[in-house]
Automatic annotation (TrEMBL):
Residues 386-578 form the BP28 C-terminal domain. Belongs to the HEATR1/UTP10 family. Keywords: Nucleus, Ribonucleoprotein, Ribosome biogenesis, rRNA processing. This is HEAT repeat-containing protein 1. It holds the Pfam family BP28CT.
Amino acid sequence: MEDDDDDVEYERFVLDERLASSNGLCRQFNSILVKFVTAHLRARELHRKILSYESERDQADEEEEVDVLQHNYLMLAQLVLLYFRRVAGEQSRHDDESGFWTTLASESIEILGALQQLLSTPGFVAVIGELLHHDNSLVRKKAMQLFNERLQEERDSLTSGEALLFIDMLDELDSILQNVEGSENSVNIQTALLSVDILARNFAGGHSKRFQQVLPTIVKYVDQDVVNAPPMTLHLFGCAFVCLSSICRHVGPVVFPLLPKFFPRLLNGIEYCSSTNGVSGTKAVLQCLLAALEVFTDKIPQFLGPYLPAVVRALLSPAVLSTAPSNAQVLMSIDCCFLNLCNHVELRQLLPTLFGAYEHVLTLQSDTSVTRLFSVVATVVNDLDLAGIRKHLPSFARFFVTSLDVRRVHASKLQDLDEVEDEVLECLVQFILKLSEKQLKPLFLKLAEWAQTHVGSSGKSGDISRRIVFFKLVVKLSDRLRGIFVPYYAHVLEFLTSALRESRKVLMQKPPRSSEESDSDDDDDFFASEEEPPTKKVKLGSSTSIVDAKTERELNTLLLSTVVRALDGCFVHDTDGFMEKDRFDVVLSPLVDVLDVLQYDSSMREFVLETVAPCLANLAWAAKSDLLWKPLHYAVLMKSRGDNASVRLAALVTVEKCYQVIGDEFLAMLPESIPFLAELMEDTNDEVEKTCHRVIKQIEDISGESLDQYLTT
């Protein structure tokens, strides 16, 4: 700016009479003027230039410059408020069909929005305080929005005195929330709750009494039945809980006196919102409620004892546990809630609650609810110390024994029984790994006794269900404990071999067929070999018998598979000579006879070739004696002379596996096998013949010499 411009005198602005006399021009002028002021308030560089010019002219110090500018901002804010009141008055007196006054009022408020960034904190709070008492609800809403924006932007730079000015606004916000005259709309109440929430997140930790005073007012918005509530009331319900949780996060036990009023409502709200997740808006409210529950379980778990069963039931609800990708936030909150309960609630309260929830989740007919319960129990188990194990071992034992009966008692309530059973077993194994030798042995013997107990009311299938789950447990323990667990087989070896015989006996019969299949196969049955054991003919129309027989066969197939895997675990991890002669003799015949199941059920081919054959080879490895190898080798070779090609193939594969596992030491068995191999080289079945040549080639590779001279002789 040039020096010779310093003394320029500007003429006083005079409104043109034509502008004043024309209603349209006057309106246009007001609109342009308001937009002009807003735009230039946002151009801060202009303010700096004005200050710079004033300081050069008046040589005022920097502090005085700021004071002058703040004074002018405050004066402008007062003028804008007066102007807005005038506009609001005109708006109420006219129909405003054109929308001019409504638009002008909105643009006038925008001036305050730009001005709030320029006002000092005292000036800003004073302006907001006046706006909160304005008759127009939109003005009050805008004031709270400006308040929220300013607080979030400047929280870190506020002095203690400025922070108190913001905290003092709690009284104004409390007045709006109380809504004594009933004139406040739901949107403004929601905005006020948001303002209190922001204040709580920033200041509640150091001013607990101030926030304690507003708690009863907030609780008023959650102490209601949400089932029949309109959508806006439901949103206020969620916002109020967000606000409550923010206060609780920083002041904790201060909310305890009001717990009976709001906590049952929280659980009811979670149940309602999860059951109506398709309704517009309920998903967002559900996230708010679960986030609030997460805070309460973290900050005041010591007061939640009476509500623990209801909390666990709410968190295990199938609707809440929806695994939809869009529900990731909900699932994260659920995980955090359970983690808080596991970390903060005493075991004497938590364990009865979790164990008691088992029967409840089964009634929900939801696999997800059951598996989630056991994952929570596993979390508790993982954090158990020695003292906790000693104190609560009986409770855990009773719970797991009850849970292991899931296949026998609750199979009809589950979609994927094997998955649920596996989750139960994983949890039990995790618990067992925490036990000492002194604690493990009696528990294992108790479980073995439980598995062998006859369940009269459920007949054979009840017994077999228990055996299946127990042997699955043996498989898992063998995988985890390896050699440490091998001595425990001494208590169940005869039990295992007995199960082998029983399941093989069932599977040695032809699979049950429907009546149509029976009719079509009558001719085939007429020409059946007389050597085959007779199979019971299913009567026409006896569909129930067919289903029962099919179910029994499926259970025995699973039992056989599990028993073989359990025995294999013993053989593989036996490094101390556990499989001495007496035990070897107990296992040998039942295990070799499993090869015969291929006579009547070709679907078991993969199981026999990939599980039974390696298991027999591992038995030979565990025996570590050619004196024991000989009867095993001979028993397997005798199977190769059977009429069924699949059984002959299985015998060959077993011999092949023995050479693979044991190596050149097993060559001691070669002389005995030569006659059998010579016969199988010319087998009528192509696959058996090819496999025989492969086995011979393997033996030749190990021995380093050709077998042709022995085989041809």
